[in-house]
Amino acid sequence: MSNDIQGKAIRLILIDHDPIFRLGLRTCLAQEPDLQVLVDVSTVAEALHYLEEIFTAGSAATPIDLGILAVGGADAPEPKMAAIALIQTLQSQYPQLPLLLMDSRLTYEEIHGARQLGVKGYFPKGTDPTILVNAIRQITAGVSDWVGGDIPIPAKQRRLSVSGTPAGTPAAMPVNPRRLWMHDLRVSANRQMDAQIQELDAQLKNIDLSQFDRFFLLGRRRELRVARWIVNQILPALSESETQLTFPDRQSGFSAAQISSVAAKNSTDLSTAEAGDLQRFRAGNAPGASSQIYPLDFPTLKSQLFDRILTKLQSRLENLTDIPLEIDLLKLEKKQQLFYLILRQFEEIIGTLNYSQIQPDVLQEKQTILVRDLWQAVLGEFFGKYSSLPIGNQAIDMVPLMEQDTETVKSSILERIPQVSELFAYLLFQTSFTIENVEYLADSPEALDHAEFLLENLMIQVANGTIYPLLNRFADVETIKQDFYDRRWMSTREIERFRNNLSWRYRWQKYWQEPKSIFESQYVLLVFDERGIRKVSSYAPRRQELAQLNGLQQTVTLWLETRDAIAPRLESMMVFIGSGGRYLLMQLGRGIGLIAQGIIQGIGNSLQDLKVKKNRQP
């Protein structure tokens, strides 16, 4: 049969005992306009009956271009050779019909025998649909296609030579067929799930998604990642030696592109053994290669950070600290919407920086500009850049009016966000973090946790800065209250109480908390957890800031230093005085008790004497 099928659809017949597999494959192939499944049958006998009709001379039926055959579940007198027998039957009666084997339970002998019989290709079940579609087109064009470029040859027919192995040394044992099948199933499942996760990531970038759709897609992505982790735990992966034994022409199980892809997609889901294998591949397989592990790349770090934070954003986001925050005023859905927006805008900024190839030494001086640009982008999108607010008889443009508070927001909130340049450097250049006087590489769990805290604190502070001008200019506008406020803060009295608490917080933070944190060489960060927003302390050298303090802030540090110097001595003195006073009081009380006892005894004796004298009188 001619393989020149250009200009017409490729017509297929599916043969498999599993109706679910046939339905899934047929549905998948139906999405390709140049592929047409004419019929799917469960047995070779049904296939022979159908082929007899369409290949009979004079039949008006359309010929078949390719048969896709799965034979692992077929019955035969000798189960081991069931595939060979069925292929022989088809090939003997219809030699002009190309066959593509799809099965995951075939032995080496069966696969090798099928190729010798003229089968044009073989792929295990679960192969990526894109690969399968390309193979179908290639086979119908007259080119064979076998998975891996070749099929594994049975151990009896192979002569493996290992460098440095003397002649006559027993050959290594071949990989168990079941283990190979499970490895192929694992690779195929991971490939399909990775493709679906990529598709979900692309959909999540759509700014027009509703809140419900975004939650649904995030949940779907989590399910896929959990499924991928379970697959990697259950199904084994071939080791490097097994890979070279099965596919001797391969120098490595992964190409450089595949290594990068695996690192970017599966780094959070790798088991301990898999992580070790990935590190060995990163280090290189050539003799004498360095064992140093390459740092994770930008997409990997970003993906891990964002996934962690997105999971936390589905909590109640309650303020668990003793610090009043501007975002406390918002409804839960508005809080979540604001944080999603900040994370997306942050992603766009670091993407722009990555594309522009900014240098690390520029980040420190650009820190203020980057945070301000992030705040302005979030402000315009959260409230609507061109939205108007009806107040009285006029419509007021909200965002331009709120942007008049830019300098106040910068000085009060944005410029006080710690270690922003370090966070950007970590994501863009994979720099290390020094935490508690210990340096951690970018791909260490400690560095990732620290970056997560810094990004969460940045998000919370930018969110506070976004709500600050709203409270400053439109706090008691009814439309704003209905659209944004939690019902606890609807009354004018509660709003004013809330604003007063914030005002006191800024004073307390400026004149007490900030100099105290500088003196204690730490930052107080606001972070997310499964319940809401909490505080953590992070060590940081702040000697330069301490030297720049003046006025009341410097007085606070001097008072703290004086208290630290005097308090232990004063406490010891008070303990001594207290002990001495207690002793004196005890002795004084004992003396008073003895005196009182003597007086009472004297009075008692006197009364006794008077009574005796009275009794003696005649």
Write the layout of secondary structure elements.
Elements: E1 10-15, H1 19-29, E2 35-41, H2 44-55, E3 66-69, H3 82-93, E4 99-102, H4 108-116, E5 121-123, H5 129-140, E6 145-146, H6 177-204, H7 211-234, H8 240-246, H9 256-266, H10 272-283, H11 298-312, E7 318-319, H12 332-356, H13 360-383, E8 388-391, E9 394-397, H14 398-402, H15 406-412, H16 420-429, E10 433-435, E11 438-440, H17 445-474, H18 478-484, H19 492-519, E12 522-528, E13 532-539, H20 543-547, H21 551-616
Parallel strand pairs: 1-2, 1-3, 3-4, 4-5, 5-6, 7-13
Antiparallel strand pairs: 8-9, 10-11, 12-13
Helix pairs in contact: 3-4, 6-7, 11-17, 12-13, 12-17, 13-16, 13-17, 19-21
Summarize the structure in short.
The chain has 618 residues and is of the alpha/beta class. It has helices at residues 19-29, 44-55, 82-93, 108-116, 129-140, 177-204, 211-234, 240-246, 256-266, 272-283, 298-312, 332-356, 360-383, 398-402, 406-412, 420-429, 445-474, 478-484, 492-519, 543-547, 551-616, and strands at 10-15, 35-41, 66-69, 99-102, 121-123, 145-146, 318-319, 388-391, 394-397, 433-435, 438-440, 522-528, 532-539. Helix 12 (332-356) crosses helix 17 (445-474) and helix 13 (360-383) packs across helix 17.
